[in-house]
Amino acid sequence: MKVMKSLLLGAAAGLVATAGAQAADLPVKAKPVEYVKICSAYGAGFYYIPGTDICLRVGGYVYLETGVKAFNAVANLYAGDNFTGHLPINADYNYNNWRASSRIILDARQNTAYGTLRAYLVAGAVNQNHGSAVGLDAAYLQFAGFTWGYTNSFFSFAAPGYGIVASPATDWSWINVFAYTAQLGNGLTASVSVEDERGRRASLNGLPNTTGPFGGAGVAGNGYGGSWAPDVVGNINVTQAWGRAQIMGAIHQVKPNSATQALGAGVESEWGWAIGAGIEVKTPQTGNPNNSFILQGAWTEGATDYTGYNSSPTAGATNIVLQKYNGLGPLVTVTDAFVNNSGSLTLTEAWSVYAGYRHYWTPMLRSSFHGGYVNIDEGADVNSQGELKVWQAGVSTVWSPVAGLDLSLDVVYSNVENSGNNVSANYGPAFTAKNDIWTAWTRIRRNF
After folding, report:
1. What is the Cα–Cα distance from 43 to 57, expressed in whole angstroms?
2. Which CA distances in Å does 400 have to 46, 60, 364?
3. In angstroms, rounded to a whole number, what is the distance separating the alpha carbons of residues 368 and 298?
4. Binning pLDDT at 50, 70 and 90, where does residue 418 land?
5. What per-residue confidence (pLDDT) applies to 100?
6. Lower CB density within 10 Å: C or N end of the chain?
7. What is the mean pLDDT of residues 264-282?
8. Number of domains in the chain
9. Kind and range of the H or E element at 25?
10. Is 27 a member of any domain?
11. In a domain? residue 22
12. Domain range holding 321?
């Protein structure tokens, strides 16, 4: 009996030891994995950055575009085929251009006691004409009604228009701003913005006519001086279910440099201005709730850029080149002001109007019909640049076979007419007739 008892106790001890060893070999239970959480507070595509209460959306786009008589989706206004003193377009002229680009969009938002804190970035790379560069479309912060950073001007409304080829009659300027927007309720807002005026300069003509009172003295190149005051821009905007509308205004300092000021006792700084209004109305009665009509106009004095003639935030044009022949051709200078024959500063008057209609034939196919007109007039002074007229009309068609993929084609007619003495003999024959330009531009774009 004692022998049996000893055997049973030994077997039990062995079982306990084995079980202990097996328990020691079991894996340690892993800590819970912190999965990405969806953030629904700001719309689709946002998620919480792990370990924070910041909601982030990551997106972007990639596109390839090409066409004839255009560059960077802007019609080449120098690509005319018929005007007085016509120079033939030869084998050195680029009829077609290409551009490929990609952008990453980061939108980070966080709820605070003072409202939403937002950081927004659009940046990427572009390749055009066998050269690559890094591009920055937007980089700004928004908090408690304030916006500061690099973004679209608070004067802009219809930009870039209803076509992929940008219209010269819609103000479209990426610029450094510091702004405040007040929410007035029922979709109504009021904004005031301080913006970098150097991004709004055309030219200041400090080259008096040799027959004037200056005995041929003048200032070569652009007569603008240093930046002393920023532009001040304001707007009142309403956005509701029917569409949106806006009125806007701006003031712009036209400051001559010291050499230009020395031309006459009255060549001192002046204040230019711009006013504008726009409206976009949804037209579901025409067959689709996304159909819409847009209209915008602007009037300026000493602030020509607010008409939109630059066509694109990357244009930066102070001139309109009407013809190119081995690097030469008529060159029309666009000015904010000029030194008149009396030795004082005259501000340039300019205005623009733009209209467009967008129609969805099917959920995947849409077309837009759009047109714009810009008039820049310095008057009849012997030193003025005269009057420049640019108008444009086009049809844009976009097919989206799948969500996020756009296949676009624009056909645009542009007309440029100069009726002044603003073409230098150094750039070829005088240009006084109409210049007709047909542009075709296509784009393949993937949004994500």
Report:
1. 9
2. 24, 17, 5
3. 22
4. confident
5. 94
6. N
7. 93
8. 1
9. helix 2-25
10. no
11. no
12. 33-447
